[in-house]
Amino acid sequence: MTDSAEHNIDQRPDGRFFLGSLKAAAKGLSPAYFAMVMATGIVSIAAGAMGMPRIAMALFWLNIGVYLVLWLLSVLRAVWFTRQFFDDMLDHQRGPGFFTTIAGSCVLGSQFILISGNYQAAFVLWVVGAVLWVGLNYTIFTAFTVKEIKPPLDQGITGAWLLAVVAPQSIAALSALLAAHWGQPHKLEFNFIALSMWLWGGMLYIWMMALIFYRYTFFRFLPSDLAPPYWINMGAMAISTLAGSLLVANAADAPYLQSLLPFIKGFTVFYWATGTWWIPMLVVLGVWRHVYKRFPLKYDPLYWGAVFPLGMYAASTLQMERAMNLPFLKFIPQYFLYLALLAWLAAFAGLLHTLARQILVRARK
After folding, report:
1. Residues 166 and 99: beta-carbon distance below 8 Å
2. How far is CA 320 from each of CA 79, 85, 203, 218, 356, rounded to the nearest angstrom?
3. Is the distance from CB of 177 to CB of 110 less than 8 angstroms?
4. Does the pLDDT value for residue 82 go beyond 50?
5. What is the pLDDT of residue 303?
6. What domains are there in the chain, each with its CATH number?
């Protein structure tokens, strides 16, 4: 830091500087920033399931802090920048990012169960996720339906729309984890909620993916169009696989799940196979974007939406292998966990670098 920057900080009241920084952080907060909670949570869960308890616990505590900070900034943004906040919610490109609040809450809830065994906190987060899902689902899609001025398909839809699939699937997964712990009748009720949300998420994926694939293949596609949330194409299928595998594991405790077991197993493998198909495609498109087209690679909060699918693919493949006794898939989760850890570290380093640079810029003003 230069002497002049240090002088500026010394001359500025600490409270005023802090408040200004807080307002700047709240104003610039991306609606999709809770994807960081999703990514950190699922990497923690996968690490815990694969015998890395220290990494899992460290990421768990970090994720609690990240979750609370993001909620604080989100509330402040809604209060201080109300119009911008709700304009984002009604925007075709930025609006779906709000679904990360649902998935982030439920993934953290799953962490509380699998990492610390705290079912009370997990249930509170389940309630938060369910309330947010009802509110955001019908607010955003109703607004998209009735608004008079709408963008054309190639400018309005992105992979971020599939966060609307990830949200109910995260509720399904957390519901199944809660159901496995509780006694009757709540066991039956929460397994039914899990089944219903799993089916709804699958139907929504089919609807949205048809539009996204159409946009891919029949409209001009620029490197700038291939934003990181397109990895949710795979991540939505990975979390659908995880939720389906948990339903398979719970089938013995719910007669209606037992009767649907072949269907659930078949669609779970269908989801896993679809997600697997997307991986080479997304890698090729990433090489085309950054190598062939030389699109600059720099930190963007949307990159957390690319870390999440890698961790979720590791966790979901492991859960499916255990639920369906598929030992020949055992080698996959470990490799993808290492990829997810590397991607998480890269995104976290980018976040720290960006924060440090923003602090220096504000200090020099």
Report:
1. yes
2. 43, 39, 20, 35, 41
3. yes
4. yes
5. 87
6. 3-364 (1.50.10.150)
Residue 5's pLDDT band, with cuts at 50, 70 and 90, is very low
Structure tokens of 140? 């955003």
Per-residue pLDDT at 10: 41
For 239, the 3-state DSSP assignment is: helix
Nearest 5°: phi and psi at 351? -65, -50
Question: What is the number of other CB atoms lying within 10 angstroms of the CB of residue 100?
Answer: 31
Angle at 172 between CA 208 and CA 337, to 5 degrees: 85
DSSP assignment string, 243-259:
HHHHHHHHGGG-HHHHH
User: Under a CB-based contact definition with an 8 Å cutoff, are residues 275 and 5 in contact?
Assistant: no
In whole angstroms, what is the distance from residue 323 CA to residue 336 CA? 19
The backbone torsions φ and ψ at residue 6, rounded to the nearest 5 degrees and listed phi first, read -65, -40
Do residues 174 and 122 make contact, with C-beta atoms less than 8 angstroms apart? yes
pLDDT tens digits for 138-166? Answer: 999 999 999 989 999 888 888 889 999 99
Q: Length of the chain, please?
A: 365
- For residues 169 and 239, is the Cβ–Cβ distance under 8 A? yes
How far apart are alpha carbons 302 and 40 in whole angstroms?
14
Q: What is the mean pLDDT of residues 72-85?
A: 94
Backbone angles phi, psi at 282, to 5 degrees: -70, -35
Cα 197 to Cα 19, 38, 246, 249, 267: the distances in Å are 41, 18, 13, 17, 14
Hunting for tokens 């400018």 — which residue is that? Answer: 155
Task: Name the DSSP class of 299.
Answer: -
Interhelix angle 261-287/232-250, nearest 10 degrees: 160
pLDDT digits (tens, 9 = 90+) for 239-261: 999 999 999 999 998 999 999 99
pLDDT for 69: 96
CA gap 192, 171 in Å, rounded: 12
In single-letter form, the type of residue at position 226 comes to: L
- The phi and psi torsions of 242 (rounded to 5 degrees) equal -60, -45
Q: Cα separations (Å) of 290 from 109, 213, 316?
A: 36, 21, 28
